[in-house]
Batch of 2 targets.
Target 1
Amino acid sequence: MFRHISRLPLAALTRGSPRATSSVLRRLLSSEARAHIQNAIDASPLVLFMKGTPDLPQCGFSRAVIQVLDLHGVPPEKMRTYNVLEDPELRNGIKEFSEWPTVPQLYVKSEFIGGCDIVLGMHQSGELEDLLEKHSIIPKADEEAAARATSS
Amino acid sequence: MPVTQEELEAVIRAAIQVTYVNVEDNSGGCGEKYAVLIVSKDFEGKTTLARHRMVNEVLKTQIAQIHAFTQKTLTPQQWEDSQKASNATS
């Protein structure tokens, strides 16, 4: 879906203005491209830019992040992933957008959380669970226990 | 031109005041995959994200040339604590 909205304007940009030097072109993400990425990030509570898909990650780092999200039981309807390998413009654009040199990149509620090292670190320290609970992406542990108690 | 372990370490040392730095080459020699541990008081009062951003900026040129880069950024205090913890368990 992202490919839909991003491909045309991004491609138009890279071929773009002959006056700009190539180094300037590389550094400046067009406001249009930026807006498309922003829309993608805002469209779902949790957004992951990754290599491959959740079912078939094509990089160990992307796989690790998917596994951690899976472990926390992030429901599919609260999460959206974009395969940067299918979209070279997104692959470069997202690095500049986030000012982060590598993929995967995790966003929660439109906020950049980090890449694989940070997500794994937050998972180990418990911060990730807190964050996901705070934004109601996963149910709070005590609420879940209460729900179980009342239903039994 | 592959990025070497020595180059990474030198660039880090030149830009960040380190207590300890360890650059591990996990690529089996091709210079594509590195794991870096940096202990520095420059990290004090910074979130992990801010620390990683700082290192990413310092190693911008190198990271662009390698395939896989993973980093750990600790303050001297965290480093000491983690050493104690691993000594206690071993």
Target 2
Amino acid sequence: MEWYWLPEYAPKFLEGLWVTLQLLGLSIFFGMTLAIPIGLVQVIGPWPLAWAARAFCTVIRGTPLLIQLWLIYYGLGSLFPFIPGIRETLIWPLLREAFPYAVVAFSLSVAGYEGEIMRGAFRSVPRGELEAARAMGMPPFTVLRRIWLPRALQNVFPTLAGEFILTLKSTPLAATITVFEVYGVGGIVRQETYRIYEPLLFVALIYLCLTFALVVAFRLMERRMPRHSA
Amino acid sequence: MDSALDLLALRPPGWGGNLLMGLLRTVQIAAGAYALGLIIGLCGALGKLHGGVALRWGLEIYTTVIRAVPELVLILLLYYVGTDLLNAGRAALGLERADISGLWAGIYVIGLVQGAYSTEVFRGAFQAVPRGQIEAARAMGLPPLKVLRRITLPIMLPYALPGLSNLWLITTKDTALLAVVGFGELALETKQAAGATREYFMFYMAAGLLYLMLTLVSTLGFSLLERRLRRGQPTQT
């Protein structure tokens, strides 16, 4: 075991860590923003919407994330340049980067898995509570915002926490489309120093620490949530 | 689009045959890795429940570390450790260096990863078996292995099945990660076909459809299996 390379590459690993955290945070944010309506329409939506949401979840959960990522980056990425005039638009610089494609792919994945969980979560809220809210004269959107959504999230929070850790563990896939997060930086070190084990073990250690940090953070958040009083 | 679809033809110059061969390899690796994972999982769960302190700790570290580190990192690590150990062993026996074939290497790395997850699934399922059943079997004079085979396993399986079917789906999707390491299975064949023809979108769509079919067929199979295994259980009301 030789670790002489560590000081030299430490700043790179820090940058990689920042990319990993950004990727994770953005994917969870956009993914959950999509997952909530996807779960909701499966419970109360009209059947075409419910059916579409269901199909979306099945497709996302039924195919490897790697294929989804490559489909979006190489597949869609190779089609964009054919759209006339796209090079003059403001989003073109974004479309040439790999990072936005990774965020889109991971967000869709989060939306698919968590949409399925949110469907169960919305169902699990007792009807009486929603009826009570309605009887108090709350408009439908307020019922959703003040009662239905918080209660649903509270019910599935431990499950969601587990899912977000799975998301963290899938972020190394982004390295396959040249996004240099922690695993990608480890790959650079392996190529430049010809050391096999040390960079991999170091990367594994970072993920181990990240996972435990997330587990602790989620547990603290769970403890701060109001418990069922009944 | 007509000419693009021709590229999916089964015979060269079409790439359809390569994709199907890739799918076959994916299923082979997944099935082998799943079987290995189940064996590790069964032993691991029994070890966690009945083993000594050292064994329990060892297994706890195994399941915790494997489940906390990304699969991609594990696959690389296990692959290098495995080939190094194998070659060290062969050198000690005075044999030449050998490369493990992609199939066996894939089965071994994915199997070791899945073993950690199935250990936890089986552990939960074993704990769901009512103690009275095991005590009754022992009182009837059944030797321990027979208790396991005749009583514990059949009662435990229906509890484990939802978790196990989930694991199978995860295993099939995890095999795609082997493409990153360069093992020829569906994802790698697709990557090569897409790279050679520049029809990225179509080939990744095709691969996605193949994986989706595999998932849907497996889901159906598992629900049939679950119905059969649960036939002795009281129906839920």
